[in-house]
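User: Last request for today: this protein with flavin-adenine dinucleotide, please.
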Amino acid sequence: MPDEIWVCTDFSTSGTKALAALAAKLAESLGTETAAVCFRQHEPPNQSINYGTDTVYQISAEGSDYVLSKYLAELAEEYRPQLILFPSGGQFSIIAARTAALLKTGLTADCRDLYIDSDNLLRQVRPAYGGGIIAEIVCGTARPQMATVKTDSLQAVDSGSGRGRVVLYKPNELLIDPVEILEHKLILKGEDLSDANIIIAGGKGIGSRQGFQLLSDLAEKLGGAAGASRSAVDAGYADYKKQIGQTGSTVSPDLYIALGISGSFQHIAGMNRSKKVIAVNTDPKAPIFDYADIAIVAPWKDFVTGMLNTK
Ligand SMILES: Cc1cc2nc3c(=O)[nH]c(=O)nc-3n(C[C@H](O)[C@H](O)[C@H](O)COP(=O)(O)OP(=O)(O)OC[C@H]3O[C@@H](n4cnc5c(N)ncnc54)[C@H](O)[C@@H]3O)c2cc1C
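Assistant: Here's the final one, the structure of the complex with flavin-adenine dinucleotide:
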């Protein structure tokens, strides 16, 4: 069906479910249907898993990003969707960029939100200019409109039970893949903030890289991950990939422990979906306490060494 809203997915992440729910909301605004698109290597383990989409297109081909993008572009040229959405990161960001180039359309990367405006155009909301502004981007004329979405910034809502019909799509021609994948390696294992249930985040108040090592030790003990404020990153105490906030990762763990973090709105923007927050700060007036379920006025080191010494 033309004009559908597609979610190109691997069905395996909780973020995909939230993205399908967002697609359903957009489809309601546009009065159209949703579809999930997956490749053979990403097929759902069970046909009934379609996250509430009306259709599932299964492209019966495998390969590298290079060939998968060509198959997706071919499918889009045949079925003419209005929008194609992808979860941000990993293989899907690459497929999205290649497919947009093949279809000669635009792509907005790492959106935090999407909505349909009064002209029925997709508004793609994302930070721009280093996080200095929140931009709303539209793709005026080229079609389809395409976006990758940081799914960790979406509300985890249920998109309902699926009625999805399955369309098996065989590409016109199986391409010779110029890329040979020798090995898949998960390099960020144990460091991925978006999947962590517990985050121990440190700010400028930690004072040194050695201090951050103690935070990492505590994170390891609790089975969580260490995060950081931008000031801590700028000071060289932690690497950028740990940064949480407007210009870093958006997280929503069960427990967020903020140590030596003042609580700027740019930092809060990245962690305010945490279920429970413990804040430790020597300043009783630190704004972070306004967001904390448990506020501890104390030096962070007392808290961390106490926790590390607890059996
Ligand atoms: C465009 C833009 C984008 C930005 N993006 C981000 C972002 O993504 N993420 C982000 O975090 N910031 C971001 N910032 C920066 C933000 O404005 C703040 O400067 C930053 O969050 C402050 O970090 P902090 O709380 O670690 O440092 P500070 O504000 O310096 O706070 C340090 C805190 O540590 C406490 N402290 C000191 N010693 C101890 C101790 N021994 N024990 C316990 N507490 C102690 C102090 O009381 C203080 O509250 C951005 C800014 C701009 C302009």
